[in-house]
């Protein structure tokens, strides 16, 4: 049976598109502002309409690049990958405010996540160390670097997935998030010493992935969880609000390092575990520790202080058999760190 297919939420994707349009409009206005600043008023008045048209034409050309090869690539990948894989096409994410990535294909399976940048470029292409050229007549001319573009996607996707699912994921994302560039129509291609693997033809790429299936980096449940998170991903502000409701919801009264609950009781409650002062006693008095539950009922510990402080607390939890997950930085509160507790 072929791989499973999942689609990103259409409403969220439309919101992404609108945000991107607004960002492009702001960039266009900034460009016109620079013309006003650098040229006399009469020259700016004459040049701005022309520059605006050129800006729109360039954006339209950028958006059109690559279209046409994605459908055929998807068909090959979908048919050739086994059922324990999930394929998502045309994924849009906002890992940081106003910074977007558009991923042609995201393949999720036991060996990990494959981010695929698909290029339906005609002609001959030559690359060395991420510097790309295409043949134009009898000359080789520089062109945009798809491998550098893929590296940017890798960097921002890693930020996005660690922010959203960090405590759930295996360590060292570089071992299971794989960027790739796929050419679907190139007549000749040679890429040497590039930072990202480059493939010519979807069939060859699919066979390459099939050979990796013995490497089990992600469990079946994690494959499904990551795919659902991508499918349901919304704009950055929406994701921030959802994460705040998940990680910071239902905080108990703060627990001081002297072991006394600051609300007056050191005893735990049904919804919040008992105090964690034993871990805090080894730290400086500036460190504060909280335990709470997410909406899904998972218990977490949150540490306010330096990363070294948080890691000391994390180690104390381990020594007491509490089975903490990986310690992660809270992206919404500076100087805060958190981890989930598996053994209550």
Protein model, in words:
The protein is an alpha/beta fold and 344 residues long. The protein has two domains: 4-19 and 64-235, Trna Endonuclease, Chain: A, domain 1, CATH 3.40.1350; 248-340, no CATH class. Helices cover 39% and strands 24% of the residues. It contains nine helices and 14 strands. It has helices spanning 10-38, 41-64, 70-80, 146-165, 202-210, 220-231, 236-247, 277-280, 307-319, and strands at residues 4-5, 86-96, 99-109, 112-119, 124-128, 131-136, 139-143, 177-183, 188-192, 198-200, 288-293, 299-304, 328-329, 336-340. Strands 1-2-3-4-8-10 form a six-stranded mixed beta sheet, sandwiched between helices. Strand 11 and strand 12 (299-304) form a beta hairpin. Helix 1 (10-38) packs antiparallel against helix 2 (41-64) and helix 3 (70-80) runs parallel beside helix 5. Mean pLDDT is 76; it is low at 59-69 and 244-285.
Task: Give the topology, please.
Elements: E1 4-5, H1 10-38, H2 41-64, H3 70-80, E2 86-96, E3 99-109, E4 112-119, E5 124-128, E6 131-136, E7 139-143, H4 146-165, E8 177-183, E9 188-192, E10 198-200, H5 202-210, H6 220-231, H7 236-247, H8 277-280, E11 288-293, E12 299-304, H9 307-319, E13 328-329, E14 336-340
Parallel strand pairs: 1-2, 4-8, 5-9, 8-10
Antiparallel strand pairs: 2-3, 3-4, 5-6, 6-7, 11-12, 12-14, 13-14
Which tags fit this structure?
2 domains, single chain, six-stranded mixed β-sheet, Trna Endonuclease, Chain: A, domain 1, four-stranded mixed β-sheet, alpha/beta, globular, 344 residues, 14 strands
């Amino acid at each position: 049976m072929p791989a499973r297919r999942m689609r990103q939420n259409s409403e969220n994707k439309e919101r992404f598109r609108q945000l991107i349009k607004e960002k492009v409009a702001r960039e266009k206005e900034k460009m016109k502002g620079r013309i006003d600043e650098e040229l006399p008023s009469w020259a700016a008045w004459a040049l701005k309409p022309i520059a605006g048209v050129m800006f729109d034409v360039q954006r339209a050309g950028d958006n059109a690049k690559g279209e046409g090869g994605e459908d055929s690539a998807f068909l090959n990948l979908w048919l050739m990958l086994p059922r324990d894989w999930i394929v998502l096409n045309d994924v849009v994410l906002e890992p940081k405010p106003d910074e977007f990535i558009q991923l042609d294909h995201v393949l999720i399976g036991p060996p990990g996540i494959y981010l695929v940048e698909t290029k339906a470029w005609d002609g001959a292409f030559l690359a060395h160390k991420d510097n790309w050229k295409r043949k134009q007549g009898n000359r080789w001319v520089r062109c945009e670097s798809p491998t550098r573009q893929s590296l940017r996607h890798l960097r921002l996707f890693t930020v996005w997935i660690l922010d959203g699912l960090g405590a759930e994921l295996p360590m060292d994302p570089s071992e299971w998030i794989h960027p790739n560039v796929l050419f679907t129509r190139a007549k000749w291609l040679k890429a040497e010493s590039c930072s990202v693997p480059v493939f010519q033809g979807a069939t060859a790429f699919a066979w390459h992935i099939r050979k990796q299936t013995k490497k089990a980096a992600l469990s079946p449940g994690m494959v499904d969880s990551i795919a659902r998170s991508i499918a349901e991903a919304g704009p950055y502000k929406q994701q921030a609000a959802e994460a705040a409701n998940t990680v910071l919801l239902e905080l108990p009264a703060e627990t001081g390092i002297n072991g006394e609950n600051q609300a007056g009781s050191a005893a735990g409650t049904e919804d919040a575990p008992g105090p964690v002062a034993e871990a805090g006693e080894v730290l400086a008095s500036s460190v504060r520790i909280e335990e709470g539950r997410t909406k899904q009922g998972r218990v977490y510990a949150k540490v306010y202080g330096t990363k070294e402080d948080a890691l000391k607390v994390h180690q104390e939890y381990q020594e007491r058999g509490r089975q903490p997950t990986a310690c992660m930085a809270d992206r919404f509160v500076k100087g805060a760190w958190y981890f989930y507790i598996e053994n209550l």
